[in-house]
Amino acid sequence: MKNFNIALIPGDGIGSEVVSEGVKILKEIEEMDAAISFSFAEFPWGCEYYLEHGKMMADDGIEQLQPFDAIYLGAVGYPGVPDHISLRELLLQIRKGFDQYVNLRPITLLNPSLTPLKSKTEKDVDFLVIRENSEGEYSGAGDWLYKGKPEEVVLQTGVFSRKGTERIIRYAYEEARKSNRTLTSVSKANALNYSMVFWDEVFEEVGKEYPDVETYSYLVDAASLYFVAQPERFEVVVTSNLFGDILTDIGAAITGGLGLATGANVNPERNYPSMFEPVHGSAPDIAGKGIANPIAAIWSVSQMMDFFGEEKWGEAILSTIKTILKETEQLTPDLGGQGSTKSVGDRFVELLKDNRIT
């Protein structure tokens, strides 16, 4: 039997509500598959922890998480704690501490009724964004000079190392080759005359090793337009930390909203645990009401199962998401239904049994 040890960080707002439904799915898989078992340990870190302890996670938090096979995160952020603290001192600390340099965001339309794009179908909106996840514009480098004075200046420095840039681009080429898809690089070399010129050069250099991969390169403003106007252009996309953050939210908008958006923070070498999360945030306005959409958190479980090498279960979960999206009345209010977070999870379990692996 394979046992997977999972660290749960429900976090803030609706995080605990949606993580509970994801764990429910994992426990159901355990019931249906005698070859798999899961162990869980929950950590209370987040904004409430910060308000009590003055820090977002324990001082030895990274050491505590190190032994786990994966981390399952709910949400980070809540009123009263500045966003730059809640994000940087928990989520980014884990990403950097465990060298989770690959961020995977599937931009996949699972039901044609969910897109605001006229006449676009599931075939038109089905691609993967690979975002550099460890440096770039989110490196935290910079300075704040002459604070409070008329000559006040702030410097935010984007860091693009040869190692960091080449490894994410190479990962994207490998993914495109493995899946027989095209690869598109998104940058902004006409305006960012150091970082993005370097990015483009590395993309071209690495590409010489992959002559079988068809490639394209767009400026980020053009890519943003094409995400909306012609999403069928894209199959695999690779881009920087900041651009990937923005573009994937556009991707969420064209596939049904953040309630369906999932992301994986991966250390491909598996030297450290990888982290899986819905990316909708803590949604404090609906926290505690029992109406948060758990589907993104459940999709995160699908990504986790793929990472564990249990792709059949990953596909079974994704297939079940497609099925439940057809049952409009069963869904949460953000998708036009009357269901609760818990009832969606319960119904999902019922449907998953029909998609079980034999």
From TrEMBL:
Broad enzyme group: oxidoreductase
UniProt-listed Enzyme Commission number(s): 1.1.1.83
Keyword field: Lyase, Manganese, Metal-binding, NAD, Oxidoreductase
Catalytic reactions on record: (R)-malate + NAD(+) = pyruvate + CO2 + NADH
InterPro entries the UniProt entry points to: ICDH/IPMDH, IsoCit/isopropylmalate_DH_CS, IsoPropMal-DH-like_dom, TTC_DH
UniProt superkingdom: Bacteria
All copies of domain Isopropylmalate dehydrogenase-like, residue ranges: 5-348
Names of the cofactor(s): Mg(2+); Mn(2+)
GO molecular function: D-malate dehydrogenase (decarboxylating) (NAD+) activity; tartrate decarboxylase activity; tartrate dehydrogenase activity
PROSITE patterns: IDH_IMDH
Gene3D superfamilies membership: Isopropylmalate Dehydrogenase
PANTHER family, per the entry: D-MALATE DEHYDROGENASE [DECARBOXYLATING] (PTHR43275:SF1)
UniProt family annotation: Belongs to the isocitrate and isopropylmalate dehydrogenases family.
UniProt protein name: D-malate dehydrogenase (decarboxylating)
